[in-house]
UniProtKB/TrEMBL annotation:
GO terms for molecular function: ATP binding. PANTHER family: HEMIN IMPORT ATP-BINDING PROTEIN HMUV. PROSITE patterns: ABC_TRANSPORTER_1, ABC_TRANSPORTER_2. This is Iron ABC transporter ATP-binding protein. The keyword Cell inner membrane does not apply.
Length: 276
């Protein structure tokens, strides 16, 4: 038993070392290194607007030039052919899938078949399976350009999942969704992550969703890592003050779910220092 635990804990997932990104002369990510993110776990990436979350995901996906190393299960992703890297890691951008005149089912099938010799029959059944898992099978024959933003975001997620990635990078996948779909999507992401042993990293803004639905968290501020680890171990009023500049209380509801209450903003500490 103990042996298994140790095995699971040391199971190699995603490692990031010294990831640095610059746009022109401006350095945006300042050498971010992250401990092993294990397969089967959902990590929420949190931080204020402009802290570099999207840049980080894009750099891990290999879509932005960067320095440093990104290693997935022992493979340095930078050394893989572009097609192989794209197959291993699925990235869902913050922007919504385009309003093209294509049926949902077709769009998901195309994503499944991209770069791989999968039969149409096989792609069809796998696409339907993913749509069912996300609770949007009823949209299969609708056209993307007649869907709401939230519905299109779900189709984007279906396109990412259908490719059976080993690494799933989701940039604000909940932002256009109503409460019911936010819950459904987080459950689907968790289920797929666990069932397929995916390393999942997603940007969310709602701290309570992260507290209740993610396994681990990564906190960023101004292009730097502030904290990483199991959600409830790392999330403290101190770290939230540091990351967001807010005063908070963390409470546990009668059903055992943690939630955060924001009481106000932190006083400017530089002024305080000057007073002493
Ligand atoms: N293509 C780009 N060119 C220049 N600067 C960019 C570009 N994309 C993002 N930035 C800058 O990088 C910083 C981090 O942005 P981003 O990664 O989008 O943050 P977040 O996703 O946390 O809101 C911001 O200051 C933003 O203005
Ligand atoms: Mg962003």
């Amino acid at each position: 038993m103990t042996g298994n635990m140790t095995n699971a804990q040391s199971q190699e997932g995603l490692l990031v070392h010294g990831l640095t990104v610059s746009y022109g002369k401006r350095e945006i990510l300042h050498g971010i290194s992250l401990d092993n993110m294990r397969p089967g776990r959902v990590t929420a990436l949190l931080g204020p607007n402009g802290s570099g979350k999207s840049t980080f995901l894009r750099a891990v996906a290999g879509l932005t030039a960067s320095k440093g190393e990104v290693v997935l299960k022992g493979r340095n992703l930078a050394t893989l052919p572009v097609g192989e890297r794209a197959r291993i890691g699925a990235y869902l951008p913050q922007s919504l899938p385009p309003e093209v005149h294509l049926q949902v089912l077709e769009a998901v099938m195309v994503a499944r078949r991209a770069g791989e010799g999968v039969s149409a029959e096989c792609a069809l059944s796998e696409a339907m399976e993913v749509l069912e898992g996300l609770g949007i099978a009823d949209l299969a024959l609708r056209y993307l350009d007649e869907l709401s933003g939230g519905q299109r975001q779900l189709v984007g997620l279906a396109q990412a999942l259908v490719r059976k990635p080993e690494l799933l990078l989701l940039d604000e996948p909940l932002s256009a969704l109503d409460l019911r779909y936010q819950f459904a999507v987080m459950e689907a992401v968790r289920r797929e992550t666990q069932a397929r042993g995916i390393v999942t990293l997603l940007v969310v803004h709602d701290l309570n969703i992260a507290l209740q639905r993610a396994d681990d968290v990564v906190y960023m501020r101004e292009g730097r890592l502030i904290g990483q680890g199991v959600v409830m171990d790392v999330t403290t009023p101190d770290i939230l003050a540091d990351v967001y500049g807010v005063r908070t209380r963390l409470e546990v509801c009668p059903r055992g779910l943690p939630h955060v209450l924001v009481d106000g903003v932190v006083e400017d500490s530089s002024e305080e220092e000057q007073r002493y």
